[in-house]
Description:
The structure is a homodimer. By secondary structure, chain A is of the alpha+beta class. Chain A has two domains: 9-150, CATH 3.30.1330.10; 166-334, Alpha-Beta Complex (Phosphoribosyl-aminoimidazole Synthetase, Chain A, domain 2), CATH 3.90.650. Chain A contains ten helices and 13 strands. In chain A, strands 8-10-7-11-9-12-13 form a seven-stranded mixed β-sheet, with helices on both faces. The longest helix of chain A is centred in the middle third of the chain and has 18 residues, at 107-124. The first copy, chain A, is globular. Chains A and B meet through helix 1, strand 2, strand 3, strand 4 and strand 5 of A and helix 1, strand 2, strand 3, strand 4 and strand 5 of B.
Amino acid sequence: MSEIKRTEIATLGEFGLIDHLTKTIELKNISSLKGVGDDAAVLDYSSKRVLVTTDLLLEGIHFDLTYVPLKHLGYKSAVVNFSDIYAMNGQPKQITISLGISKRFSIEDLEDFYEGVNMACEKYGVDIVGGDTSSSLTGMTISITCIGEGEEGKIVYRNGARETDLICVTGNLGAAYMGLQLLEREKRVLENNKETQPDFAGKEYILERQLKPEAQKAIIEVLAEKDIVPTSMMDISDGLSSELLHICGQSKVGCRIFEEKIPIDYQTSVMAEEFNFSPLTAALNGGEDYELLFTVPLAKHQDIITIPGIREIGYITKEALGSYIVTQTGQEVALSAQGWNSLSE
Amino acid sequence: MSEIKRTEIATLGEFGLIDHLTKTIELKNISSLKGVGDDAAVLDYSSKRVLVTTDLLLEGIHFDLTYVPLKHLGYKSAVVNFSDIYAMNGQPKQITISLGISKRFSIEDLEDFYEGVNMACEKYGVDIVGGDTSSSLTGMTISITCIGEGEEGKIVYRNGARETDLICVTGNLGAAYMGLQLLEREKRVLENNKETQPDFAGKEYILERQLKPEAQKAIIEVLAEKDIVPTSMMDISDGLSSELLHICGQSKVGCRIFEEKIPIDYQTSVMAEEFNFSPLTAALNGGEDYELLFTVPLAKHQDIITIPGIREIGYITKEALGSYIVTQTGQEVALSAQGWNSLSE
């Protein structure tokens, strides 16, 4: 094994480190007037609405560096923020990145992290325009704020779902959660036996969904091309049940979704079975899918079904009818937001 | 002593906690179209430039909860971000707040923190429009992003200082640093003898500068009234030397400042003497003053000297002449950025 280069962060200091990590940044968006290097970034949003979202990711809570490579972590940290902007029917354009890091990290580690962030920014057309780097006494802390643009009248909130609207999801659900279960299992195995090599063959898809998720840029673009503005939308980060209950709560409506229509990938099902776990539970409560959940008027059915990667899974009802999933045997089961609640015990 | 109410965070859960802490927020700025409660906030900056700044504050590195009350911490966390926006000659309008918290914090603790943030937002006319709350395995993590507005052509960067420009600072320097030294000393005394009561009489000013700093809103407004647009500007968070070297570096100029002109408060000097410490060193390298450092063309001298709270401390030179402070005995000493470098050893 080749020696891994390790340069202590103290050799650069705080300002040196920021310069080092940001010196190759080139601004690509016309709305990015001034990026890193002043007290604040300067953006031009004169003809658009500004969308702002922020996420805090803490080591040991949101990620485990024993199996998450730093490059992947950087990629994912950026993408999950882009996902929130797409979920408003907007386009992410700028991010700021703040990092808290202890001495166990080297400059090369942070370069890996930034490489991942840069890859995500390249792919999604986003500029890094600011940030902050600080030492930390303990684990790694990542805080990302993403700024995006939306068009007046086309921004989609959570509160616009109406009775008879169709409920749609993109892609498939539960894969990222099963990927996480697999990684956690292999970690425990490795802890007990250092000689073992994890066997991930045939499970690449669910691992990728966990380690390198993507945001739904293409879907937002297709919806715009077809002139479809959803009545409500969210990204699925805490699980379908939790998100759908948010939409129903804020829109003051109920819903029916159908078990047989929930999109679940084959690898997700296989992995769930191996864990004696219901694939449906992974899909409803698993989280970290970063797919989009949205509603459209019933009249858009013909337009929607022609778009690859979108599935209609049910419809919106009056609020009094509650929020239920209809099982394959015809039973109605109330949706509950178990979600991925990092603050409960 | 009355019993302190303590409600465990787990009784509310993550979403409940965010709702609880944000339910009383009312948006005040016309640019704040939609705040907390969706995937992203929505802002209208159609006639202005958008300014964005972010700060990460970590327990044990940036603050010590043994002597910093949570309400003050909330206030300060918000104000230091506003300060960055003023330093661009802008007006802060929105913030997002992300908190990482361990179980040792109760809901009442977080209410105190938010009360401080709210007080600052009220005073400076800023809306809270988003955030994230997460559990943390260790200390408290605070990440704040502030969005502000600037006028095209009037945004002030660090790179515009020109030869013969006057160098100005607001208020006085070094007080926050001496306040910190005092708090640290009293903490050590208390650790050794729990019976002692700290004696802060006559030292209220430097304590307030450390615990409850203010941003320079009024100065920015006066400059606008008098139609003065600085050629360069920064807020003084890492110490005058460090900031002035940033301005000289980015503007490719040198400078001369004069020891006798550096504004230092009486309490700062008294405290420094008690610590056998040079007041000038506190002013040059102390940090956390959140005063403004800016340059104006020489022709603005008459306008500037009529503004209370602004002091001219020197002038900008050609780059080749270097950056020096001229002592009271006429010696030239090179400025060095010792700053407050949290990543060095």
